């Protein structure tokens, strides 16, 4: 993911993602494992000595073998800790399977995963099988569709909705807009929670502010929270928790065992925001 329009330099030996015109991140490419063009985006998998396998979409880091747990655990587990009875779950995006993997740690009844690009799923199953194994779980229903269009047409109701989108460019643009979140309200059960990634709190501060403004017009509870994600722009990432009924700091259960980063203390601390972000959110 990137925080600004990318300026891409590519050589056989390194992969670069620019966050501004003069700041970015690079990886030495030890092996190029896969490179293809889907109808929606360029999909690449490289291998790096330190981070292991890395999935890039249009040249932007989506997940890595070494640090994926920061992002996936922090997107998934806060909502599960506070929802009174999370049974039916929806994921918009998330074709790499990491969010699904974390959700299936809980005794849920069903998980719908709606991903627009089937080739992202195919590549992830081949090169990130430890992330995508949840696709074989009997509780999982995979839907290949545009998330915005699927939301508009479904009559299903969910307890938690996760928006695991990439940045607001290309096929993910509509997943960051007011109309999309407004349409999601029709498929929420009474105590439902929506959790979404909202980008870099350093490079995307203006976008976070705009999202906060329209979300507060749609939902009673709108809380941003943060987490480190080493390979995302700035190394510190933001998420938003929204609900009309369920407060994010009223913890009702413990997380499952075996997590690498998330715990109840991390949960509480994540909602404590730095001053510059609090000022933007008002």
Which consecutive residue ranges, at least 5 long each, have pLDDT under 50? 1-10, 168-172
How much beta, percentage-wise? 25-35%
Tell me the name of the CATH class of the largest domain: Alpha Beta
| Quantity of strands, as a count | 14
- In order across it, which strands form the biggest sheet? 10-9-8-11-12-14-13
Helix count, DSSP H or I runs of 4 or more residues: 9
Give the biggest beta sheet: 7 strands, mixed
What is the end-to-end distance?
26 Å
CATH fold assignment of the largest domain: Rossmann fold
Q: Mean pLDDT score, rounded?
A: 91
Question: Could you say what the CATH architecture of the largest domain is?
Answer: 3-Layer(aba) Sandwich
């Amino acid at each position: 993911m990137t925080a600004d329009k990318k300026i891409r330099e590519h050589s056989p030996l390194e992969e670069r993602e620019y966050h501004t015109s003069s700041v970015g991140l690079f990886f030495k490419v030890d092996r190029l494992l896969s490179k293809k063009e889907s109808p929606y985006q360029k999909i690449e998998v490289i291998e790096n000595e330190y981070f292991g396998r890395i999935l890039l979409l249009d040249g932007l880091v989506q997940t890595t073998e070494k640090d994926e747990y920061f992002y996936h655990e922090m997107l998934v587990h806060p909502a599960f800790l506070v929802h009174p009875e999370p049974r039916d779950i929806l994921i918009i995006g998330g074709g790499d399977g990491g969010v699904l993997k974390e959700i299936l740690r809980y005794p849920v009844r069903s998980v719908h995963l709606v991903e627009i690009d089937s080739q992202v799923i195919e590549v992830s199953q081949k090169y990130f099988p430890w992330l995508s194994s949840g696709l074989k779980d009997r509780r999982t229903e995979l839907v290949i569709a545009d998330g915005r269009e699927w939301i508009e047409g479904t009559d299903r109701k969910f307890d938690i909705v996760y928006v695991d989108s990439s940045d607001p460019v290309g096929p993910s643009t509509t997943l960051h807009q007011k109309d999309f979140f407004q349409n999601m309200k029709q498929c929420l059960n009474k105590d439902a929670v929506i959790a979404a990634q909202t980008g870099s709190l350093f490079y995307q501060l203006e976008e976070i502010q705009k999202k906060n403004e329209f979300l507060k017009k749609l939902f009673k509870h709108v809380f941003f929270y943060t987490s480190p994600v080493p390979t995302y722009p700035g190394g510190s990432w933001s998420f938003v928790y929204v609900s009309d009924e369920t407060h994010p700091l009223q913890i009702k259960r413990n997380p499952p065992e075996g997590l690498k980063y998330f715990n109840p203390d991390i949960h509480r601390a994540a909602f404590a925001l730095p001053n510059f972000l609090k000022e933007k959110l008002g």
